[in-house]
Design goal:
Blueprint (H helix, E strand, L loop, with lengths): L1 H28 L10 E7 L2 E9 L2 H20 L7 H7 L5 E2 L2 H16 L9 H7 L11 H8 L8 E3 L2 E3 L12 H14 L3 E8 L2 E6 L7 E6 L8 E7 L2 E7 L4 E4 L2 E4 L14 E8 L2 H14 L1 H10 L3 E6 L3 E4 L1 H4 L3 E2 L5 E3 L3
Parallel strand pairs: 15-17
Antiparallel strand pairs: 1-2, 2-6, 3-5, 4-5, 6-7, 7-10, 8-9, 9-16, 10-13, 11-12, 13-14, 14-15
Helix pairs in contact: 2-7, 4-8, 7-8, 8-9
Length: about 350
């Protein structure tokens, strides 16, 4: 039974990664004329998702090895709530008592708290008890009873989490879950490695987060595809261009649970305890860091379009919102390069 679950988990991860792999293909196909050498490419499973890299320039194979090693270290030592060796797992295990953590983990948590504050809790890294209760995408996925959700909500609240002088402490019963920023963090760490490499350009995809770094072969900006949330993994609704930076997408199609004919997605609203319902089916965010792009895509999905705008502005971020009515709204920083290519959707332009 355990082996069957492992096989199912691997298959699920591969399917979840298909959209990002396709997006990388779109970027590669857009490289255009003038490309003189093929990139070094490598894909694998790390941090519970599909990771893919396209590396241009010298020492691609060596750098890829460094990247995948770093991703495994991130999961094992810092971010996983399942692996007992990680900082996050140790904090959760010592709920109610302070724990000494790696300074880099502390930096991640500090930024996560900042996003929690500015989003008024739409993003909250202390959602662990609630996400574990629903376990959407896991082997124990179910719709909890209202009483269970009410109890779990009592543990949610970044205000109850203490971070001071390298010591982290949760209130009794609380649990951290960095699933909404882990992939973005991996992209941030990838950038550090790339900056020390002899590469000229790179595309790194970790689940729903992407890093576009350096020069695009053939010149010009990188072209990024936006998945059709209601289509197959190979379907696009449009694309936009970006010189460099981080891109993350949150969508209601990524992990789901269907019970009694109703489908529930995995992006939970920290205030209600249920899957967020702000009229959106996907949000794609570009931001100065991977952590921010990842956290903001989740926060914006929970908040909805109007409430997200001040939050995005406060972090110098841009976004593409897709509604249940298949309307697409694009913030000003991406509006000039965004192209809608799917006739099933319509673009709403703000005046």
């Amino acid at each position: 039974m355990q082996n069957t679950h492992k096989k199912r988990t691997v298959l699920t991860v591969l399917l979840l990664g298909a959209a990002m792999l396709l997006l990388i293909l779109l970027i590669a196909l857009d490289l255009g004329k003038g490309q003189k050498e093929a990139p070094f490419e490598q894909s694998g499973i790390s941090m519970g998702t599909v990771v893919s890299v396209q590396l241009y320039g010298r020492d691609g194979e060596k750098t890829a090895g460094q990247l995948f090693s770093e991703f495994d270290t991130l999961e094992k030592d810092r971010l996983s709530w399942r692996l007992e060796s990680s900082d996050i797992a140790r904090i959760n295990a010592s709920s109610g008592s302070p724990v000494s953590i790696n300074e880099q983990t502390a930096a991640y948590l500090k930024k996560a708290i900042e996003v929690s504050q500015k989003s008024d809790g739409a993003f909250d890294c202390t959602l662990g008890a609630l996400t574990k209760l629903w376990d959407i995408g896991g082997e124990n996925a179910r719709v909890p009873a209202q009483a269970e959700i009410t109890d779990a909500l009592q543990t949610v609240g970044y205000q109850k989490f203490s971070l001071h002088n390298g010591q982290a402490a949760l209130s009794k019963g609380q649990a951290l879950d960095l699933g909404a920023i882990g992939k973005g963090i991996a992209c941030d760490e990838a950038q550090k490695i790339l900056e020390q490499s002899r590469l000229s350009g790179a595309v790194v995809s970790v689940g729903g987060s992407i890093l576009l770094w350096g020069d695009r072969p053939g010149g010009g900006d990188w072209k990024v595809g936006v998945r059709d949330p209601r289509g197959e993994a190979s379907d696009q609704l449009g694309s936009f261009s970006l010189a460099e930076g981080f891109v993350s997408t949150s969508g209601d199609y990524e992990r789901t649970l269907t019970e009694n004919g109703k489908t529930y997605h995995h992006i939970l609203d920290p205030k209600t305890g249920y899957p967020a319902d702000a009229g959106l089916i996907s949000v794609t965010v570009t931001a100065p860091t991977g952590l921010l792009s990842d956290a903001l895509s989740t926060a914006c999905f929970v908040l909805g379009y109007e409430k997200s705008l001040p939050l995005l502005e406060s972090f110098d971020a841009q976004a593409i919102f897709v509604t249940k009515e298949k309307a697409v709204r694009v913030t000003s920083g991406l509006a000039k390069t965004f192209q809608l290519t799917n006739g099933a959707y319509h673009l709403i332009q703000d005046t």
